[in-house]
């Protein structure tokens, strides 16, 4: 017999309402270098406190991370990374490091989300443009800020990247281009796993330097093409990938980009769209719907969508044999083929 609301108590409401407590504990730990300090091995409470310079609440912070499965603590009270945080929060592993994304979430997104109600009420973005600024010109004019942003985009896509290298029949294709490629991490993983592929990153010209630096760091041969995918033709290649790109735009622009992809691909070519796809019934995948709310905070007309939505847009553009496939718990891809 299910419990009544009175028997359950208000905990589900409180847990959701105060979810920012847990998120701030994790984000602050990243900023304070907790995971960096543990990348060399386990540390006791005093050692970890000294390494991070935390003056108050150190034990509470470290233990809430243990309770959240972000850290482990042994019988001697020594803290260490878990398998998950060792993979994704260890700065010495640039292939998988998520810290850049979390720093961006703390410094940029967290303050902007305080104005979510304003975004919903007014229909206007609540990021740098709220007070007349323009995020992207400022971002691309500052090389170091741009690098941080690109690292954060890599972090956001890392789960999908690791899954996508085996989730598509790459052996049947020879060339691939990633539209809005950021650092090029997806292409690097693809070429490492499938060395027969010729891989091209397509992004704004300012991205060239960090892209090529990252390719050298990872030791993979990648090509970069600078351009504006909104204004210029897309690279002619056998597979085109749009990862976390379509959700930035309104429906007309989404359809325009899909049509441009169809024009650029040869017969038999494929388009891959990966996003935090919302479930078709819009009942269970809260992360995808929260991501769509983030687009309301960040963009003029962007929104996330279901796999069925995207499949329909692909078919309208002429793609056939479309299908939807889960990549990770948060990410899914929609694939379509040109006749």
Q: Which features does this protein show?
A:
339 residues, alpha/beta, Arc Repressor Mutant, subunit A, Rossmann fold, 7-stranded mixed β-sheet, two-stranded antiparallel sheet, 48% helix, 13% strand, methyltransferase
Question: How does this structure look, described?
Answer:
This protein is α/β, with parallel strands linked by helices and 339 residues long. It has two domains: 5-88, Arc Repressor Mutant, subunit A; 159-337, Rossmann fold, CATH 3.40.50. The chain is built from 16 helices and nine strands. Helix 3 crosses helix 8 and helix 8 crosses helix 11 (143-164). The chain is globular and about 60 Å long. GO terms for molecular function: O-methyltransferase activity; protein dimerization activity. The active site is at 247 (proton acceptor). Keywords: Methyltransferase, S-adenosyl-L-methionine, Transferase. Residues 14-90 form the O-methyltransferase dimerisation domain.
